[in-house]
Amino acid sequence: MTWDQVLRQASASLSAAGLADAPRDARRLLAHVLECDPSRLSLLTHEAAPDDLRARFDALIAQRARRIPVSHLTGRRAFYGRDFAVSRDVLDPRPETETLIARALEHDWSRVLDLGTGSGCILLTLLAERAGARGLGTDLSAAALTVAARNADMLKLADRVAFQSGDWLDAVPAGSGPFDLIVSNPPYIARDEMPGLDPELDHEPRLALTDEADGLTAYRRIARDAPAHLAPNGVLLVEIGPTQGAAVADLFAAYGLSGIAVDVDLDGRDRVVSGHFGAN
């Protein structure tokens, strides 16, 4: 069989499993097996498929049909024009989080703190986009910090970033602040919303998805503790669920932040809440 025939079979199998993006997923997995860019597959699909490579591809397709995310099968996820290593230990970077990146880059800062850094995609993207800036990422998961450190090495940013294990701002070492910018994409899904989520999320760390409560627990902690770690005129930016804008904005105001704004993502949904500490 040629790769084109194999690819058609794989797309049909994924479609039968109920995957809406079956052809795209099949192409991404084949590109991974053939170690080429997906855009070059058309140059290769007329070639005969060797048995060993086809067996490897078929195994990946079978796993994808069981709703294992493509990123976990390839070990990579694209975010803001860069590839990041991912695993079951971290939340997959998502396009909507790029709203937070764009908002952060509108501000002046040179020291950034990322709370619940996970893969490090937010923190490392910000550092890559701003030469000379330095950052600290915290996470309760030691396994997640291992992934983040790997990404820092891959992006050649290890000399400008540090990682610390611990719970939100309690993990920040004494004397390491203040920070001009604090960012976070905390777990914001309420416990009673979890059963209705996409099956792919079963393969991501539950700790990064839900607070096992109303979805606002982390925001209460961050809004309360962040001002003590912000420099004058410093900015706090958090990603939120699309129904949480007003509630998180109220929390920011309750703990003394000013200039509070709620920004929408490309789909027009509330996605980022920002606030300033001290005079603007």
Description:
The structure is a single chain. This protein is an alpha/beta fold. It contains nine helices and nine strands. The strands form two sheets. A seven-stranded mixed β-sheet has the order 5-4-3-6-7-9-8, sandwiched between helices. The protein has a two-stranded antiparallel ribbon with strand order 1-2. Strand 8 (258-264) and strand 9 (270-276) form a beta hairpin. Helix 1 crosses helix 2 (22-34), helix 1 runs parallel beside helix 3 (51-65) and helix 2 packs antiparallel against helix 3. The mean pLDDT is 95.
Strand order of the largest sheet: 5-4-3-6-7-9-8
- How large is the share of residues in beta strands? 15-25%
- Radius of gyration from CA coordinates: 21 Å
- Discrete helix count: 9
User: Biggest sheet, open or closed, and with what strands and sense?
Assistant: 7 strands, mixed
- How many strand elements? 9
Question: CATH fold name of the largest domain, please?
Answer: Rossmann fold
The level 1 CATH classification of the largest domain is Alpha Beta
Q: What's the order of the H and E elements? A: HHHHEEHEHEHEEHEHEE
Structural class: alpha/beta
Question: How are the SSEs ordered, and which strands pair?
Answer:
Layout: H1 3-16, H2 22-34, H3 51-65, H4 70-74, E1 76-79, E2 82-85, H5 98-104, E3 111-115, H6 121-129, E4 134-139, H7 142-154, E5 161-165, E6 179-184, H8 217-225, E7 230-239, H9 245-254, E8 258-264, E9 270-276
Parallel strand pairs: 3-4, 3-6, 4-5, 6-7
Antiparallel strand pairs: 1-2, 7-9, 8-9
Helix pairs in contact: 1-2, 1-3, 2-3, 8-9
